[in-house]
């Protein structure tokens, strides 16, 4: 069953975990997971130009019809998050050709896919990615699934390389860019298959 259908355990969710579309009641728990991650794993702390959506989760993800925020809950606590936003990478700070390839409106950007350390290695991130891709396919109007990651975060780069195709590794740019890696995932087709739209 789809995560967006409500607080129903998806068939392959690990025992004790429930993946669901976030509600206003989940916002505090989701924000805590995200802020803990940007301070502990990303080591950037809260930077308004990068993380404003974390403060206004309802405005960024719950109210817009083409965006979503999913949470994984265990024993009443939000332990993982994942979101789709209808905005591609912006230039600057990203390369202009990348912004042109993934324009806002037709690009579903996967973001805020964070799992608390003690709940990792249970397949929660993969489950979130699958459900977010299904959401993007169902809502319509999206032609690309895009994301970027910071390779300095332990495990992030190999995880995304196992699921997606690299589009740009900024570490290889002449000035090193922002040091992040940009990826594209295949867009699912409603009903369970995927379309090989990766260019």
Short description:
The protein has 199 residues and is an alpha+beta fold.
Notes on the structure:
The chain is an alpha+beta fold and 199 residues long. The protein has six helices and nine strands, in the order βαααββαβαβαββββ. It has helices at 27-40, 48-55, 57-62, 96-101, 124-139, 156-161; strands spanning 17-21, 68-74, 77-85, 107-115, 144-149, 165-169, 181-185, 187-188, 194-195. The strands form two sheets. Strands 1-2-3-4-5-7-6 form a seven-stranded mixed β-sheet, sandwiched between helices. Strand 8 (187-188) and strand 9 form a beta hairpin. The two termini are 30 Å apart.
What are the SSEs and their pairings?
Layout: E1 17-21, H1 27-40, H2 48-55, H3 57-62, E2 68-74, E3 77-85, H4 96-101, E4 107-115, H5 124-139, E5 144-149, H6 156-161, E6 165-169, E7 181-185, E8 187-188, E9 194-195
What distinguishing features does this structure have?
single chain, 199 residues, alpha+beta, two-stranded antiparallel ribbon, 6 helices, 9 strands, disordered N terminus
Global morphology: globular
| Strand element count | 9
Q: Radius of gyration over alpha carbons?
A: 16 Å
Largest sheet: 7 strands, mixed
Uncertain regions spanning at least 5 consecutive residues: 1-9, 193-199
Share of helical residues = 25-40%
Structural class assignment: alpha+beta
**Neighbour order of strands in the largest sheet:** 1-2-3-4-5-7-6
Distance between the termini: 30 Å
Strand-residue proportion? 25-35%
Mean pLDDT across every amino acid position = 88
- Number of helical segments? 6
């Amino acid at each position: 069953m789809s995560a967006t259908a409500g607080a129903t355990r998806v068939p392959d969710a690990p025992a004790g975990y429930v993946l669901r579309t976030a509600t206003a009641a989940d916002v505090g728990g989701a924000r805590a997971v995200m802020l803990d991650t940007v301070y502990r794993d990303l080591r950037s702390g809260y930077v308004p130009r990068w993380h404003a959506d974390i403060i206004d989760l309802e405005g960024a993800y719950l109210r817009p019809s083409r965006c979503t925020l999913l949470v994984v809950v265990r024993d009443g606590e939000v332990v993982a998050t994942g979101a789709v936003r209808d905005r591609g990478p912006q230039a600057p700070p990203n390369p202009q050709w990348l912004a042109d390839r993934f324009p806002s409106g037709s690009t579903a950007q996967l973001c805020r896919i964070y799992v608390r350390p003690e709940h990792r290695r249970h397949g929660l991130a993969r489950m979130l990615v699958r459900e977010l891709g299904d959401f993007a396919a169902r809502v319509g109007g999206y032609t690309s699934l895009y994301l970027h990651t910071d390779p300095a975060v332990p495990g992030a780069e190999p995880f995304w390389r196992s699921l997606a195709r690299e589009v740009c590794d900024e570490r290889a740019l002449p000035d090193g860019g922002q040091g992040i890696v940009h990826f594209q995932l295949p867009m699912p087709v409603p009903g369970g298959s995927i379309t090989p739209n990766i260019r």
